[in-house]
Amino acid sequence: MAKLVQSPILEESFALIDQEFGTHSLTPTEYAVVRRVIHSTADFEFKDLVCFAGGAIDAALQHLSRRGPIIVDVTMVRQGVVGMVERTFQNPLLTAVTVGDPAAAGRTRTETGLVRYVEEYPNALVVVGNAPTALMALCDRIESGQVRPAVVIGAPVGFVAVEDSKRRLAQASVPQIRVEGRKGGSAVAAAILNALLVLAWEQQP
Asked: In this predicted model, what pLDDT tens digit does every residue of 113-142 receive, in sequence order?
């Protein structure tokens, strides 16, 4: 498959990141993911924060190229990836929470929506860039065997429950790309998924 056309500014930014990145032990595909995160954040600390486990990249490329569904936690993640989804495989793109969605008793609105979608699509690729409570609820269902996501991208940001949710994900037996510590966010989660979409598209025969 032909290489996706990227903007000249993006290509120049990637070249500058390549010059500054330094030595590392990432595979070429892992590097492509981390480089896109750094491009989105201008933060080289992510070279040590993004973790890959369970054959996550291969699992993601297979799922995306088969046009498997993608569940994202918030609209900001959706806005960050919808253009690339439309340029590549046009996967079903489901957003856990939108304006006006109600919350179930004892749950946040995002957690409520994410649980609803993962129960409907238990093998989806799931992206969490904002809500640690949603990631916790997802981990509960993975551990109980109710759902088996193709891949989980876990990148919530902040202080309350964020690191705990990532530790829970680290213990889950599911392919995952995880951002350690307090950092993350919608832009980071979107960058990870966009990098995977590009890789999947360009690795097609």
From this structure: 999 999 999 999 999 999 999 999 999 999
